[in-house]
Amino acid sequence: MEQSGRLTLPTDVDMVDETIRLKELLGADALRDCDGTTFPDALLSQDAKKYATYYTTRKDNEWAEANPDEVQQEYLISDRVTARGETLRIELMKGFHREQLKVNTIHDPKRWWEVIDRTTGEVVPTDQWDYDEATGEVEIQTVPYHQYTVSFLAFLIWDPVHMFNFITNDWKDAPHQITFDVRLPKTQQHVKEKLKKWCEDNPEINVVRFTTFFHQFTLTFDDQKREKFVDWFGYSASVSPYILEQFEKWAGYKFRPEFIVDQGYHNSIFRVPSKEFRDYIEFQQIEVSKLAKEIVDIVHSYGKEAMMFVGDHWIGTEPFGKYFANIGLDAVVGSVGDGVTMRMVSDIKGVKYTEGRLLPYFFPDVFCEGGDPIGEAKENWLKVRRSILRSPLDRIGYGGYLKLAAQWDGFIDAIKFVVGEFRLIHENMQGESAYTAPFKVAVLSAWGPLRGWMSYQVHHSIWHREIYSYNGVLECLSGMPFDVEFIGFDDIKNGISDDIKVIINFGDAETAFSGGENWIDAEVVTKIREFVDNGGGFIGVGEPTAYQFEGRYFQLSDVLGVDREMMYSLSTDKYNELNPNHFILEDIEGEVDFGEGMSRIYAQGEDYQILSMDGEYSQLVVNDYGKGHGVYFAGLPYSPQNCRILMRAIYYAAGMEEEMKKFYVTDVDTELAVFEKTGKIAVINNSKEAKRTDLYVNGELAEKLELEPMEMRWVDYNANI
Amino acid sequence: MEQSGRLTLPTDVDMVDETIRLKELLGADALRDCDGTTFPDALLSQDAKKYATYYTTRKDNEWAEANPDEVQQEYLISDRVTARGETLRIELMKGFHREQLKVNTIHDPKRWWEVIDRTTGEVVPTDQWDYDEATGEVEIQTVPYHQYTVSFLAFLIWDPVHMFNFITNDWKDAPHQITFDVRLPKTQQHVKEKLKKWCEDNPEINVVRFTTFFHQFTLTFDDQKREKFVDWFGYSASVSPYILEQFEKWAGYKFRPEFIVDQGYHNSIFRVPSKEFRDYIEFQQIEVSKLAKEIVDIVHSYGKEAMMFVGDHWIGTEPFGKYFANIGLDAVVGSVGDGVTMRMVSDIKGVKYTEGRLLPYFFPDVFCEGGDPIGEAKENWLKVRRSILRSPLDRIGYGGYLKLAAQWDGFIDAIKFVVGEFRLIHENMQGESAYTAPFKVAVLSAWGPLRGWMSYQVHHSIWHREIYSYNGVLECLSGMPFDVEFIGFDDIKNGISDDIKVIINFGDAETAFSGGENWIDAEVVTKIREFVDNGGGFIGVGEPTAYQFEGRYFQLSDVLGVDREMMYSLSTDKYNELNPNHFILEDIEGEVDFGEGMSRIYAQGEDYQILSMDGEYSQLVVNDYGKGHGVYFAGLPYSPQNCRILMRAIYYAAGMEEEMKKFYVTDVDTELAVFEKTGKIAVINNSKEAKRTDLYVNGELAEKLELEPMEMRWVDYNANI
């Protein structure tokens, strides 16, 4: 069994001996620094790869201060203010933290700002407002009792992640790191030269770990230094007049601040993306990938590897976009909070290897009184392990202050367990893939492939009451024996690919994930009806296909067998009755957890069967539709039981119930991954209790297993056929 | 104390002696027959008013059968059927009960029917479909995988209420009563002649009780004789080519079946009414009131009174409409299920007196094993009594089979209690009104005054999980010391009346009661903002002012201090915190009941105070807005506690907290009504437990009272000032 390799550890100047001890103990083959730590010279001679975090956009205040017009910018929206009279003054920076952001008065406000009457949606002509620099207020000629906002450009005078780390760690003396815009020619030149010099000065560093390239995701603080707005996918801080003028030329139409500000929603990933925002993302990908390649080429020219962190300034790189591979990176590394965020890294193409930074991060917010870093490490691994068996990371690692980890009783043992299992998986799979069902499962949203494994997140893998009942679908899928493809509505219209047998659509109505107005596109609904009629499966969760139109809320209510009562059809009697006897629930004991669920779902049509009800309404419904099937879930948070239910629902929807028991374990808390080529089967216990489970191979009972809590048992495949 | 009068009892041929006994015992001064009972000749000489139910539209099958083209008609919509190929056959009567309805092939289908592609919303040209009378199917040339419906006319060959009574009572031999359309000239002539003859033949009858006039509310049965569709407000059965051609002339535009069928929602009261449907209601009111007056005139010409039952064929009469008083009725009688439906009768203007038919109805569905008619009578009276103190009925009565009531142990005593209290109220109020606050409370909806006391109902006072949390607002108001006015959005635009101090808007988004698209009318929101800014109050329940537009879901989020998280603003941090110390909750102990509540409500702005939270979200929020106030409730089902909370919220919203204790009782389960002119104060205990409550008069503690369960205590006003 492999005892070393595939592991990266953080280090720091005061941890030289401890780093060496832990490196040996855990078999780490790479060491790294982090934001706030420094790589000790004494370790440069160690037999390990040395990673250095590298920031293109900050840690050079001298440059930033000398070039204030090249500081990064962000589109902000002021408070919404209701006019009481014929004029109104709006204080732009009210509610923002003035140490982080500063109104941009260098570029002409009349060209780059927008004052909007939010009561009518109309833009206020530029001759009807003025910016008063002395007070920081915009004075507007108003219609009484209309509401107004000002969209304006501000300089990002404190890097948001540096600010976050500064606040979280209670740093005192560190100067605020100013961000500068590498897209601007002068700064670009400076940054490239600096990188060359740095490469020359640091010959022992093997891997330049970019954190990341040029544009920070949106993270804004309020006047009390609390988080005010965070969107891990946000493009609001990727703007500058220089970029926007280029965009106008490329797109062929005039830019409007509203394309970015978006009524104050800032194009949240939950918004059905507008054409203009899609264009902007496309343009940014082209430009960012081009410039990133130039940066990576410099690194390569010094014989070093270039690694990108999927986070911080990752905006515009879009790892699932069309241009990412062009960058020519050697590797990506990303924070892994669960199975979904693991797949968000491990499924990236166009790099030589992937690395996952597991949780917990060695920061004092977890390694503190009341914190439970060992519990977090175990929970994290339980979720991550099952998805690694499907699509493995090549490496894992940790970040933060090694000192915190080393001093926490028992924590290093927990890591040792994780690393051991990780290496064992690689040893047994030998680069081969686990068995998957002979069809693809497509996840349909308005984002399509661009947001693969990225839906239903606000900030990277943070739990929200509004999202967990949907995010569970992806978390379940991340470790299941299915090839998952993320598709958009154009992919439907261009013809559903033959290898897809099941389409899943989930989310709240009129979000990008449900699809909004796309559902009244006749081509979309007819293509899907035809697909199901001919034997396909369509699974909906929450408010799938929802858009109120022509007498239905769910536009594919005929396929799903359900609709949602929006008060308009209370006059219609429903007579819905429960019948839980169904393939999907065969293994399932006890109640099904629908998370937040969805109220007022009723079955309709003649071919449905209701498997679960809440009073007179339904939560789980199957429906025959021609040769195919619809399945409806009111919600599907992640749990081992829901993984089982979803797996059964997928096989049922695909009309391939027989295929399911090709490889199967009976206990709902257990799963398996079969590596036919290497002759190995992993049976994992996803619970913290011991479990008995029967293993089926090729449809036959092969072994009766007793698994320890959290155990991963490897079984010889060939002995069982 | 009055021992008799104000009471109507039902009778039947086999109940002569018992009727006389009960009439004396209860002091009834009127007797009536019912559907399925007959007035015994032996009682015609009794000293009491004699009511006879009279049906203009049925109980004359001879006429109906001789004139099949004058049978009443209804617009139906077929099942929605998805085309699999280029043609599709839809069986029109599938799912309808063929003994109730029959496809109308007398009038040209191509003129009066409509085939609609529900995938696009387009009407299928009439040359692309045909009706096959032999099979009862419409064959349509289709686009594959589009969905189609056929809207068609059917004859109502069994009166829906007769059918309902027939099924409920398990009648066997009664012939199905066919309905005929009194609007048609030939039938109209016949009905008038018949009425004249009937008046001549029944000289002892004093009151002709019309059940009702011409058009039945929508009540359709399915193929298993179960209720399929019921809308107590529905106009779908008020149509015929004769009427529709008149409508076209009056309206000046072409009629479309879709105006009635409305995507299959049949213009449910929850739909924001379309212009065309409003026009149709207006037209029907004009015509119905004109013809009803002719009928009433006949009755008057025989020296009898004309009474209308608000139910059954009441469609088009619209008691809160502009034309109702023109009918010249002497009285209305309506079923009284609670305070709201009591006010729906007692607030009707343009009649000499009002009568409420209290529950339970003497039918075997309640007077049966497991039934609790005494409990129902008490519950009913508790809800009705408090609203009678605000706006009294002139009379009460009961309906159904007297035999069932007479034989139920203790039931007659329960009635005696109710009747006694009812008479006492009249004796003490002497026709004067109880004290109300010195301002009006307006209920704002897209229906305006037309649906006063009628919102949030599907079928007359039937409980639904979807509506009780809203209907509670009206139920509370029905017995509260406020003048309530029902207003529409035009009333806002035309200028909010000076006597209104508080506006209430409640309901689910995009229903008629919330208001839908009216909320993006700049005139509406500016007028209300101005109103509140100048000291008015705005109370919202559920999804008030909701319509997603320009960055807000609640368009008056600035006034209310809250918005609803529709997933678009998850990136914005909220930091909402609870502070329940407020005037509104001063009396309140324990949890507040928000019923079904409303998820994801968050406070925003700077002037809010959150009085109740559910996790991170809010349920009860107050907001300062200029000189006025907003109040938000997540839901408000009826309960004595919620009456108190709403009363406090209204005084708070009006900025008149001081006024509240002018007349006040401390215990939340008790209320009072003050008759200053007659010098009487009624203190009522709305609970079934004994209560101690302190009575305040003109702001001073006047008496400490101990009330029996359900007690109504009369206190002398003048002794306490």
Please explain how this structure is put together:
The structure is a homodimer of 721-residue chains. Chain A has 721 residues and is of the alpha/beta class. Chain A is built from 18 helices and 36 strands. Chain A has an eight-stranded parallel beta barrel, surrounded by four helices. In chain A, strands 21-20-22-23-30-29-28 form a seven-stranded mixed beta sheet, with helices on both faces. In chain A, strands 4, 5, 7, 8, 9 and 12 form a six-stranded antiparallel beta sheet that branches. In chain A, strand 22, helix 15 (522-533) and strand 23 (537-542) form a beta-alpha-beta unit. In chain A, helix 10 runs parallel beside helix 12 (411-429) and helix 13 (468-478) packs across helix 17. The longest helix of chain A has 27 residues, at 275-301. Chain A is globular.
Summarize the structure.
Chain A has 721 residues and is an alpha/beta fold.
